Amino acid sequence: MLEVTGLEVAYGRAQVLFGVDLAVPAGALACVMGRNGVGKTTLLNAVMGVLPTRAGTVRFEGRDITKMPTHERVRLGMGYVPQGHETFGQLTVAENLRVTWEASGSKDRSVIDEALDVFPRLRPLLKRRAGFLSGGQQQQLAIARALVTRPRMLILDEPTEGIQPSIVTEIEDVIEHLHKERGLAVLLVEQYLDFAMRLADRFTVLDAGVVVHEGAGAELADEGVQRLLAV
Ligand SMILES: Nc1ncnc2c1ncn2[C@@H]1O[C@H](COP(=O)(O)OP(=O)(O)OP(=O)(O)O)[C@@H](O)[C@H]1O
Fold it and tell me: Which residues does the UniProt record annotate as the domain ABC transporter (predicted)?
């Protein structure tokens, strides 16, 4: 479904990704792992077209999208939840969802209700400004917002980072539900090894912008792989 080949990305003269290959088959959950600063966020931003690539290709469902702007990738079915649970802080929860729905060009308003069905805890908060929500609630809103565009693939950058433990479990359960029950393909950057071990079909370990290991989810239990991830 998603195929990244030979990806090179740089910030000015500082190259960060070097020939990265990554594949996420339809319906799979793939996890990108690695220590801080190895290039995980850069990889997701390049996959979504937030950052330009210096070389390499990104294909989605067979189509070359390497030069496609981000909003068109979203319309193709790629939903992105960037790092840091960003929402429109001055807008209410309802407005956050509506603005995304309007921007998606969808005529079907029921997608907003469907997204709220996934996160029922957001319903009583619909009139609250997003900036006043807790970190966990903002992350739930950020994921709900991505769902409003009815993605076939969800791309999440450390969705449980800095979030209170009670909501971490809820967010993990939602990702599991979207993947297993709804069949969404998922590309996830995740630091929590046990969550990745429980859910990932496959994983890719980055180190200094290079893929140093990839394999089936079960291999994440290997000591050798865990050593690559230790700080
Ligand atoms: N806007 C930027 N300009 C210049 N360098 C950047 C920029 N963003 C990131 N970098 C550098 O690129 C490298 C990779 O950063 P990136 O955020 O992709 O790593 P990461 O693996 O996601 O790290 P973390 O787990 O801390 O989020 C780092 O050395 C970082 O300092």
Answer: 2-231
Number of domains in the chain: 1
Q: Look up the domain containing 62 and give its range.
A: 2-84+153-229
Interface confidence: ipTM more than 0.90: yes
230 lines ligand 1 (CB under 6 A): no
Instruction: Name residue, tokens 């394999």.
Output: 215
The predicted-structure confidence for 33-79, as pLDDT tens digits, reads as follows 998 899 999 999 999 999 999 999 999 999 999 999 999 999 999 99
Residue showing tokens 């190895």: 38
Centroid of ligand 1 to alpha carbon of 14 (angstroms): 10
Tell the residue number behind the tokens 């907003």, with chain if given. 112
For ligand 1, whether the C-beta of 39 sits within 6 Å is: yes
- Asked if residue 103 belongs to a domain, the reply is no
Helix, strand, coil share (%) of the chain residues, nearest 5: 40, 25, 30
| Residue 130 domain-assigned (yes or no) | no
Cβ–ligand 1 distance for 204 under 6 Å, the answer no
Residue 94 domain-assigned?
A: no
